[in-house]
Design brief:
One of its GO terms (biological process) is double-strand break repair via homologous recombination. Keywords: Metal-binding, Zinc, Zinc-finger. InterPro entries: Znf_SWIM. The protein has helices at about 5-20, 30-40, 40-50, 90-100, 110-120, 135-140, and strands at about 55-60, 65-75, 75-80, 125-130. By secondary structure, it is an alpha+beta fold. It has one domain. It has a four-stranded mixed beta sheet with strand order 3-2-1-4, with helices on both faces. Helix 1 packs antiparallel against helix 2, helix 2 (about 30-40) crosses helix 3 and helix 3 crosses helix 5 (about 110-120). The chain is globular, with a radius of gyration of 17 Å. The structure holds zinc ion. Zinc ion binds near residues 90, 110 and 112.
Amino acid sequence: MSNKAALLPLILEKVFEKYSASNIDNNLGDLFVELNALLTARVVKAALNLLDHQCIVVYHNIPKTKQVAQVNESSSKIIWLFPHVNYCTCTYFQEQVLGAKDPSTSSYTCEHVLALRLAHMLKSDKVRFEELAFSKLKVLLSNFLPEDNHQSD
Ligand SMILES: [Zn+2]
């Protein structure tokens, strides 16, 4: 049954809601205790690491209605994310979230998605926001569309 899988995102939303309300700085410890319990300490720790190393750049248009985030885990490992979308191309997400054979041990998300979520919630200055003209943003976003004109070899 997928009941368990459906409950976790709901509880997570409640946790984020609770802590985004007010004086988050005084409750950071509690927030991370709850996140550890829901998402495992490994994912939470890795997410904080990404924030600490300022690995995230959010590209956006002028009214910030369109955004796409870049996580630079290393110079050779770059991951693209859409804010508020629980999807990632990383190995962990593909194997532990999408590919888990046993739903009772599967994960809900990876450190990249969590880091971006936390960055927005904490209004973290560890994330760089970069304004892009819509035409440039469109080019960026087009990388995520199916390549219907792709010339296959
Ligand atoms: Zn990921």
